[in-house]
Design brief:
By secondary structure, the chain is an alpha+beta fold. It contains 17 helices and twelve strands. It has a five-stranded antiparallel beta sheet, with helices on one face. The longest helix is centred in the middle third of the chain and has 30 residues, at 286-315. The chain is elongated.
Length: 511
């Protein structure tokens, strides 16, 4: 944290003195990618400082040509003002006045222009970052809809949001965190919608980050700004890589946090049910969207409770009515059921991690070998019961149905917790585990918002929007829990125009 304790050093009028101070900090001889280009402008010495590969060559060449033709008489008086307003022919420019600002600016990507005899420097934003195209995110694919997604470049991400929300009241504030990394962070919200207290709270938390660097980008920022226990597995922010999803939440009154070098945008605050929504539901008709949502809810429920419930009724067959006596293992296997489930759960995670770390051309083969050969052989030799493999695989599918990867992992830990308590204590263990998990959800809050809203506290209208994907025409108000300044999406006092009745055929055609 020594870098933060440094006092600001004003730029001197002597260019050589400024370059000496910069060399003491940056050591140009030991950094081949730091370029110091010394030139002469109108008879005066000058220098450009920039990072190689962060600068667009064409604009820089044009600026150098413009400056090279200047005569001394043209900039004798008011040198700095003439250079800034007339001869630096580029749109994004500003002035700075300290050595620390020169260093931070140059290392962030812009080009710094210093002139002998001037105690100020001109910043020319000629940045171009190594970046990929905005491809569709792997975790949030849709059958029909836009195929662009956020990238690792902050300005590209803000442009994708601006393209969808052209409101002049959209605010995208620039913040910086990390004493050494100087990570760029953007805070996005719509000024006349988002709750000012929420915006101030998020901004204050970001400004209070005191750490040397944020190499893990958005995840490090999340852990530093989200209130509550660090060991809570349930995500209190939602991540998205889709600009349309981010724009929809902005219009609801949420706040977005974008971190440079990360393609994931944080949406806050969020509830448990925010993590169960997917863009696919809103890209289909309302009826289809309702069906997809219910299937997803069923999959999430199965991913948490299927294997603990089956283990419970297998260990306590008396809990089942006579009509359901067919449920249960036909053949237990050489390993106790409880241990079988634990091994199967760990095996699923091992397969998932193996496919992640396996090169793409052979990742599919790895999954087939692990799932088919190992699973089939384990049941054939009698180590595992076939039902254990079946229900574990079904629960895994339910996990993959969960739109939020973070919530899917939290639900996975909840399932393991219920399995362990059920295996050890049977029915009392299952009840205790369920009560503990629900209490944990009940006590969780995301920036002051109850995690189980609108179920607890109950809001009938909002709960209806959770259960049923509402048509766009009836989405007239924003979520009340966010306390937006403007609560209405659409005018509520104007009747909807009735469709004009037009005969299908003219009188002559009917005759």
């Amino acid at each position: 944290m020594a870098a933060e304790a440094q006092t600001k050093t004003p730029l001197a009028k002597d260019l050589a003195d400024n370059l000496r101070k910069l060399d003491e900090r940056l050591v140009f001889k030991k950094n081949f990618d730091l370029i110091l280009r010394e030139i002469e402008v109108g008879g005066r010495k000058a220098a450009f400082l920039f990072v190689d590969a962060f600068v667009k060559d064409e604009p820089l060449t044009l600026i150098l040509k413009e400056l090279a033709r200047l005569e001394a008489a043209e900039i004798t008086l008011n040198t700095f003002k003439k250079l800034f307003y007339r001869y630096v022919t580029f749109g994004e420019v500003k002035t700075i006045g300290t050595i620390e600002e020169v260093i931070d600016t140059a290392l962030s990507g812009p080009t710094v222009f210093l002139v002998d005899g001037e105690a100020q420097a001109i910043v020319i934003d000629l940045r171009v970052y190594p970046a990929r195209m905005p491809d569709e995110p792997d975790l949030e694919k849709v059958t029909r809809g836009s195929r662009d997604g956020f990238t690792e470049t902050l300005v590209h991400n803000t442009a994708l949001i601006r393209r969808r929300v052209r409101d002049p009241r959209l605010r995208i504030e620039h913040l910086t965190a990390g004493a050494r990394s100087k990570t760029d962070i953007a805070l996005a919200y719509i000024e006349d919608i988002a709750n000012p207290d929420l915006v101030d709270s998020v901004r204050e938390k970001v400004n209070k980050i005191k750490i040397d660097g944020l190499p893990m980008a958005e995840k490090s920022v999340e852990e530093l700004i989200t209130p509550g226990t660090y060991w809570n597995p349930f995500p209190r922010v939602r991540y998205t890589e889709r600009p349309d999803v981010a724009a929809a939440h902005l219009l609801d009154g949420h706040v977005l946090v974008l971190v440079d070098t990360s393609p994931s945008v944080m949406i806050l605050p969020t509830t448990y049910f925010h993590h169960l929504q997917h863009a696919e539901e809103f890209r289909q008709s309302p009826t289809v969207g309702v069906y997809l949502r219910w299937v997803r809810f069923a999959g999430v429920f199965i991913s948490v409770f299927l294997t603990p419930l089956w283990l419970l009724v297998s260990l306590e067959p008396g809990l089942l009515p006579p009509e359901l006596k067919f449920i249960g293992p036909k053949k237990i296997g050489a390993v106790p059921l409880f241990i079988q489930f634990l091994i199967a759960e760990v095996a699923i995670d091992m397969i998932r991690m193996a496919t992640i770390h396996t090169p793409s051309p052979i990742a599919t083969s790895t999954g087939i070998i692990a799932a088919v050969l190992l699973g089939d052989l384990a049941t054939r030799v009698g180590l595992f019961g076939p039902e254990v493999i079946l229900y574990t695989a079904t629960a895994a599918i339910g996990t993959f149905l969960t739109p939020s990867f973070e919530l899917a992992q939290a639900n996975r830990l909840t399932r393991l917790f219920l399995l362990i308590l059920t295996g050890l204590l049977r029915l009392p263990g299952f009840i205790i585990g369920t009560v503990v998990a629900f209490s944990f959800l009940l006590l969780t809050r995301s920036f002051g918002v109850p995690y189980l809203w609108p179920l607890i506290p109950f809001n009938l209208k909002a709960w209806g929007s959770v259960i049923v994907r509402p048509p766009v025409a009836v989405q007239r108000s924003r979520p009340s829990v966010l306390k937006p300044i403007d609560p209405d999406r659409q005018p509520t006092n104007e009747p909807r125009p009735a469709a004009a009745r037009k005969p299908l055929f003219s009188r002559k055609q009917r005759s």
